[in-house]
């Protein structure tokens, strides 16, 4: 199985394990009269544990296979974080009235980074993100676990 398929399978396992836990949690303690109605909590529990163990094994294989590109994976995550945070940075400059419908005096703002610089930096990082994603996808398609 290549990494691309392994990553898809991991998502599926996570979803299945979550579903088994929810069944176990919901049916673990119930009215005695309803015991045979719904899912068997013992089966749900056993499936949850089994899927979790399978998930640990798969995650370990994925982690080991990703070792050659670990720095790219970490860089990708941090670039996405940088873009997300920078998008929320205020770039007001000049006189600004704090409250739109108020008689308050305008406040003068200065900014270390202006909107143009901020937008350019975001574009640069997004281009790097795209490049790294393509490299990781290519690696995942050819790497077997």
Concise summary:
The chain is mainly alpha-helical and 145 residues long. The chain is built from 4 helices and 2 strands; from the N terminus they run H-H-H-E-E-H.
Description:
The protein is mainly alpha-helical. The chain contains 4 helices and 2 strands, in the order αααββα. The protein has helices at 3-27, 41-65, 70-87, 115-142; strands at residues 94-96, 107-109. Helix 1 (3-27) packs antiparallel against helix 2 and helix 3 (70-87) packs antiparallel against helix 4. The longest helix has 28 residues, at 115-142.
Task: Give the helix/strand layout.
Elements: H1 3-27, H2 41-65, H3 70-87, E1 94-96, E2 107-109, H4 115-142
Antiparallel strand pairs: 1-2
Helix pairs in contact: 1-2, 3-4
């Amino acid at each position: 199985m290549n990494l691309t398929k392994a990553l898809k399978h991991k998502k599926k396992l996570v979803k299945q394990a979550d579903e088994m836990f929810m069944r176990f949690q919901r049916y673990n303690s119930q009215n005695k009269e309803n015991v045979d109605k719904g899912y068997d909590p013992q089966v749900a529990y056993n499936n949850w544990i089994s899927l979790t163990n399978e998930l640990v094994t798969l995650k370990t294989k994925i982690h080991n296979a990703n070792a050659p590109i670990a720095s790219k994976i970490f860089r990708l995550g941090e670039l996405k974080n940088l873009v997300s945070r920078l998008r929320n940075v205020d770039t007001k400059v000049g006189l600004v009235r704090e409250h739109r419908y108020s008689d308050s005096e305008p406040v003068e703002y200065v900014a270390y980074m202006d909107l143009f610089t901020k937008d350019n930096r975001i574009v640069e990082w997004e281009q790097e993100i795209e490049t790294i994603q393509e490299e990781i996808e290519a690696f995942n398609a050819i790497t077997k676990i």
